[in-house]
Design brief:
By secondary structure, this protein is α+β, with helices and mostly antiparallel strands. Helices cover 39% and strands 19% of the residues. It has a 9-stranded mixed β-sheet. Strands 2-4-3 form a 3-stranded antiparallel β-sheet.
C-alpha cells in the first residue's frame, strides 16, 4: 500500500459497499417491522459520561481533547450512548421503548492482531420489558434478521452473565482475585483460567465448580449439571428457551454456560451469534438492567448488536460453500 491506513481499518470499494448497504437495509427492515425506531448518537462522547455506564469500557483507547480541555472518547459500543440518549430524551415516557441503530464503533487494537479498530454495528435495544420475555424478543429478532440477510446456518450461544459471578460468591473467592478469572473467561482462555483457579488453593469441590462450569455447552440437559446456588439464573434460561421454542427458534440455540461478554454492565441473560461458515462471532448482546439507572430513571433493558461486516463475510462464505456443494 502506497499510503498506509491505521491498523484495524481499511477502505471499502464500490462493489462491497453496495453489498453492505443492501445488507444494512435488510436488517433495518426487520427491525422496523418489529416496531424498533432508528436513532443516531454522536461518534464522540465525553469520557466521564460513558464511564457512568462502564468504568472500564473495552479497549476504548481512542481519546482526544476539545477546546476546553475535556476528554472525548470515540464510542466503543452503542448501548451506553443509547442509555444516555434515553435519559436525555425519554424521561417519563412510558415503557416499552424499542430503538435500533446502525453506526460505527471504535476500539484500540494491537498492531498485527487482525482485529478491527473501526466496525459497523447494527442492533436493537428493548427498554422496559423485564426478564425472559424481553430476552426472548431480542434474541428472536436477531435470529430473524440474520435469516432475512440470507444466512441459514447461524446459531445462538446462550448463557447468563451472572452465573460465574454467583459461583465466585458461593465459593468465597476473594474480591481482589476475581477480575483476572473473569478476564480469562471472556477471552475463552480456559487454560489460564484453570491455572489461576489452582493458584487460589480452593477446596476441591469449589475448584471443580469453577473449572467445570465454563466447559458446559449443549442442549437443555446441561442445565441439570449446575450447582443449585445459581438456580435463579437457570430458571430464567429455561424460560427464555421455552419462549424461543414457542417461536420456532429452539433449534438455533446452544447453551454455553461459560459465556461471558467483555462489557461489564450485563446483569442476566447474555448471548453470542455464530455461523459455522466463519471462525468468529457475528455479534451478541444481553440484559443490562442496571445500566439505565446510572443515567436517569432505572429501567430493565436488553439489546443485541451485529457486526455488519462480519455478517457480510458469513454471507459470502455460506454462498461459497453452498456453491462447492452443488458442484
Amino acid at each position: 500500500m502506497i499510503h498506509p491506513v491505521p491498523p484495524g481499518t481499511r477502505d471499502v470499494l464500490p462493489d462491497e459497499m453496495r453489498e453492505l448497504r443492501a445488507l444494512s437495509l435488510r436488517l433495518h427492515a426487520v427491525f422496523e417491522r418489529a416496531g424498533y425506531g432508528e436513532v443516531w448518537t454522536p461518534a464522540i462522547e465525553y469520557e466521564d459520561v460513558l464511564r457512568r455506564g462502564d468504568e472500564s469500557p473495552p479497549e476504548a483507547g481512542l481519546r482526544l481533547f476539545d477546546d476546553r480541555g475535556q476528554v472525548l472518547v470515540m464510542r466503543s459500543d452503542a448501548t451506553i450512548p443509547i442509555a444516555r440518549l434515553v435519559a436525555d430524551h425519554y424521561g417519563g415516557v412510558p415503557a416499552p421503548l424499542r430503538l435500533c441503530y446502525f453506526a460505527h464503533a471504535y476500539r484500540s487494537v494491537e498492531r498485527g492482531s487482525g482485529r478491527a479498530r473501526e466496525f459497523l454495528q447494527g442492533g436493537v435495544e428493548l427498554i422496559g420489558v423485564p426478564g425472559a420475555k424481553g430476552d426472548a424478543e431480542v434474541i428472536a429478532l436477531a435470529i430473524d434478521a440474520l435469516g432475512e440477510a440470507g444466512l441459514r446456518r447461524h446459531r445462538v450461544g446462550l448463557g447468563d452473565g451472572m452465573l460465574y459471578r454467583t459461583l465466585l460468591d458461593a465459593t468465597e473467592v476473594p474480591e481482589a482475585q476475581r477480575r483476572p478469572l473473569l478476564e480469562a473467561l471472556w477471552r475463552r482462555d480456559l487454560v489460564a483460567l484453570e491455572a489461576r483457579i489452582d493458584a487460589l488453593g480452593l477446596a476441591r469441590p469449589a475448584r471443580e465448580l469453577l473449572v467445570t462450569l465454563p466447559t458446559l455447552r449443549g442442549g437443555p440437559d446441561v442445565l441439570a449439571r449446575i450447582n443449585a446456588s445459581v438456580g435463579a439464573a437457570l430458571d430464567n434460561l429455561r424460560e427464555v428457551y421455552e419462549l424461543l421454542a414457542e417461536r420456532g427458534a429452539a433449534d438455533r440455540l446452544i447453551f454455553d454456560l461459560g459465556l461471558l461478554r467483555e462489557l461489564g454492565y450485563y446483569t442476566g441473560t447474555i448471548f453470542e451469534v455464530y455461523d459455522p461458515a466463519v471462525a468468529f462471532a457475528l455479534g451478541g448482546g444481553g440484559r443490562y438492567d442496571g445500566l439505565l439507572g446510572r443515567f436517569g430513571e432505572p429501567r430493565p433493558a436488553c439489546g443485541a448488536g451485529l457486526d455488519v461486516q462480519r455478517v457480510h463475510l458469513a454471507q459470502l462464505e455460506e454462498e461459497r460453500t453452498a456453491g462447492e456443494g452443488a458442484a
